[in-house]
Amino acid sequence: MIKNESQDNTGKGPAVKEFEYVLRLYISGASTNSIKAVNNIKQICEGHIKNKYILEVIDVHQQQKLAEKEQLIALPMLIRKKPLPEKKLIGDMSDTKKVLKGLGLPD
Amino acid sequence: MASVSNKRTTLKKILPKTPSGIAGLDEITEGGLPKGRPTLICGAAGSGKTLFAIEFIVRGALNYKEPGVFMAFEEKSDELAINVASLGFDLEKLQKQNLIKLDHVHIDRSEIEETGEYDLDGLFIRLGHAIDSIGAKRVVLDTIENLFSGLGNETILRAELRRLFGWLKEKGVTAIITGEKGDGILTRQGLEEYVSDCVILLEHRVCNQISTRLLRIIKYRGSIHGTNEYPFLIDEDGISVLPITSLTLEAPTSTQRISTGMPTLDNMLEGKGFYRGSSILVSGPAGTGKTSIAVSFVNAACQRKERCLYFAFEESTQQIIRNMKSIGMNLQQHINNGFLKINASRPTLYGLEMHLVSIYKKIIEFKPKVVIIDPITNLVTIGQLRDVKATLIRLIDFLQKEQITVMFTALTLNTAIGEQTDEGVSSMVDAWIQVKELELNGERNRGMYIIKSRGMGHSNQVREFVINNNGLELVDVFLGPDGILTGSAREAQQLNEFTGEVIRSHALSRKDREIERKRMVLEARIASLREEFESVQEELNKAYIEEDIKKEVMEKNKKQLIEKRLNTSGNGKRK
């Protein structure tokens, strides 16, 4: 499911611009934290910014070079690519308040 | 019993080491860092941790064909490359050759919001990828503690670090983890708790405004190691650790003897001089000619076509050459011929260790047979006595191993009680010559004697030591009626004795002549007596001969008379 989503979103390349929120979630395989993070962030996004966002989920194990490029240390990590400035959130996204704050969304 | 010994041999086998390539460190650790295990390098800011780590990686790549990953948590890759370029490490090139991989980890707390549980899989993947991409055998994490400032959840970090070190071991890479020294503990975050195989502490100590870097192995599980603080220095060739060259006394010894440059001093040493490869100390108060003795030794060596290296801490090269010309020694000529190199520097130029290393380096470069250090006393101005002593021990050790003869000069103060030199090196040297002031009759003269000379017979006499235009000379001290005579008193005594000699010889010749005359008179008398005797003898002989002749004639007459008588009687009968 995770992979599908990431593939879907990358496939829609030009459409990215249309979304207000562009989010990228880096995870490491099917670890507990990763699965939790995917579920949590989806829930939050659906609840707050439905239809206004695009979420790309990337398994770092599959693209190891990204780790250096994106300065990845702690996983899972969510990067808000849009709107600027870039924001980084780490953790399993279970602290909804902090996630909202990090994404710049009202409670 | 058998199982115990088996266990021992296997223990030896299971601790393979990875040579660090850092000069001297592999000697202290007997082979290097534990292979396939993490080593913790801790120390305060500026103690050389990063350099240590980068040298480990670069030397591994260049000398041992072991590619390495350098993960920097502090400096950016390009900054790092510039910083170590001064040491001649071309990180760019090595990266292109896939021998090393630099990765700068940037982590900033202000940019990151923590939203629950996380792990450091990103770091693992990143490091794993870096290791696999170049087949790295060595890994450096410099300074991983920075993660603690970037990430807030200490519990997670600690658990993850433990996992990381375990994972590094599994990967079989030899790793160096650096850590900033904390208050009262080795590292701020107690990394030593996780990295327990080998811990090395680097320190930077400033004493009398001169800094010394020190290295100490705190822990090395499963291996013997030196436990001392070893000074090290960072120069244009990277780090050099200076172990006391050998922990054992196993230097080779030579029975070859070399001249001291003063035939009279040679005579005091069985007529042969010092052993090659021995260490000689010349001590004495100011102005007693210590440098002259040293230069005379050098002069002799250069004339034997041996290379000499002269470390001067008091005079400049030109000064020495000029001064020694006045006593008939032409050093310039030896310098031109390439046999002599004078290295003049102020002791305060750098710290003791730096001096030692610069001496080491120059010796290795020039390969001399004779080394002079003039004087060692000045080194005290830049270090503690015991440090100076330790330094000199190491130097002597090194020189002995290389079979280089070394002569130290040392200044002793007149006020000093006893004969111990300031540096306390006298117990370590093989031969010790003391030059003394002898003050008598309002003048100062120099006396020289041999306090010790290991392994050879040596004179126990105090000799007067004279410096003149032709060089140095030892003169027998005169024992006058009032004790020892030196200088002009000795010369006066010598003159006196010479006068006596002349007068005596004059008297002798006069007596000789008288005797000669008497002999002549005697001989004349003997001749006249002989004449007299001969004439008496002749007289006597004359009488004898006359007697004989008379007797003969009478016999003849008697015969004739008898014959005559016989004839006449016959005639008468016939009638």
TrEMBL record, chain A:
KaiB domain residues: 24-105
Question: What InterPro entries does UniProt report for this protein, alphabetically?
Answer: KaiB-like, KaiB_domain, Thioredoxin-like_sf
Biological process per Gene Ontology, one example term: rhythmic process
Q: Which domain of life is it from?
A: Bacteria
What CDD domains does UniProt report for this protein, alphabetically?
Answer: KaiB_like
Q: What SMART domains does this protein's entry cite?
A: KaiB
**What protein is this chain from?**
Circadian clock protein KaiB
Q: Which organism is it from?
A: Flavisolibacter ginsengisoli DSM 18119
Q: What is the lineage of its organism?
A: Bacteria, Pseudomonadati, Bacteroidota, Chitinophagia, Chitinophagales
UniProtKB/TrEMBL annotation, chain B:
Which keywords label this protein? Coiled coil, Hydrolase, Kinase, Phosphoprotein, Repeat, Transferase
Q: Where is the KaiC domain?
A: 16-255, 256-488
Q: Which domain of life is it from?
A: Bacteria
Give the molecular function GO annotations: ATP binding; hydrolase activity; protein serine/threonine kinase activity
Coiled coil ranges (UniProt) are 512-546
Family annotation (CDD domains): KaiC-N
Q: EC? A: 2.7.11.1
Does the keyword section mention Repeat? yes
Q: List, alphabetically, the SMART domains matched.
A: AAA (SM00382)
Write down the top EC class of this protein: transferase
An example Pfam family from this entry, by short name, is ATPase
The protein's matches in InterPro entries, at most eight in alphabetical order, are given as: AAA+_ATPase (IPR003593), Circadian_clock_KaiC-rel (IPR051347), KaiC (IPR030665), KaiC-like_dom (IPR014774), KaiC_dom (IPR010624), KaiC_N (IPR047221), P-loop_NTPase (IPR027417)
Task: Show the NCBIfam families listed in the entry.
Answer: PRK09302.1 (NF006799)
In Swiss-Prot or TrEMBL terms, this protein is called: non-specific serine/threonine protein kinase
> From which lineage does this chain's organism come?
Bacteria, Pseudomonadati, Bacteroidota, Chitinophagia, Chitinophagales
